[in-house]
Amino acid sequence: MTPETKHIVSELRHEFYCLFAAAMNVPVRIIGASYSSNSPIASWVDDRQRLNYVNVYAYTAPDEFIPFRPFILRLAINKSAGRVTIVKKGQECRGLNRVWDFELTLLPGEILDFLPWIVSLVQAYDKNSPSLLVPPPHPFELKVPTVGLFNEAWTQKAWLLAESATATLI
Question: For position 34, what pLDDT does the model report?
């Protein structure tokens, strides 16, 4: 990643986590060392006492070798739960939430728009509610896996950008 792109990801991640923490009705901790290869995450304990987390990172980004690579982010909830191994003191929980996960791939300019929808998604899941109270701010498509739940979505703009970048490489 270019230094400018790293800075943008860091700023968007920080802003998203702070706004996410303010919007949730439960305590949210933002953890992660800047010297770690893992990006910071925002974590919370749900009503069932399971540790959940959201991670924002660059899915693809320009770098010195491919400066025209598209800049696309991914917002992952409880994805790769094995990477969260430390429960901080004061976070009483029964372990990681391995029951559900979700990924949303989107453009940097879309991530903050999705904040209310993501909070609604997390709260709907926690309440075992089949409906979301907030409509998505941008059109997206659920990608159907061969096995499992519908847990991966791409905004239309991110999908088109990724597809056009792939087409130019062929």
Answer: 47
Residue-level pLDDT at 128: 83
Rounded to whole angstroms, the Cα distance separating 170 from 166 reads 7
CA distance 1 to 44: 29
Contact 119, 88 (CB under 8 A): no
Distance between CA atoms of residues 81 and 68, nearest Å:
32
Higher pLDDT, 146 or 132: 132
- SS3 string of the chain? CCHHHHHHHHHHHHHHHHHHHHHCCCCEEEECCCCCCCCCEEEEECCCCCEEEEEEEEEECCCCCCCCCCCEEEEEECCCHHHCCCCCCCCCCCCECCCCCEEEEECHHHCCCCHHHHHHHHHHHHCCCCCCCCCCCCCEEEECCCCCCCCEEEEHHHHHHHHHHHHHHC
**Mean pLDDT score, 22-44:** 81
pLDDT number for residue 169: 58
The pLDDT of 6-29, averaged and rounded, is 96
The dihedral through the CA atoms of 165, 167, 168, 170 has a sign that is positive
Structural contact between residues 107 and 14, judged by C-beta atoms closer than 8 angstroms: no
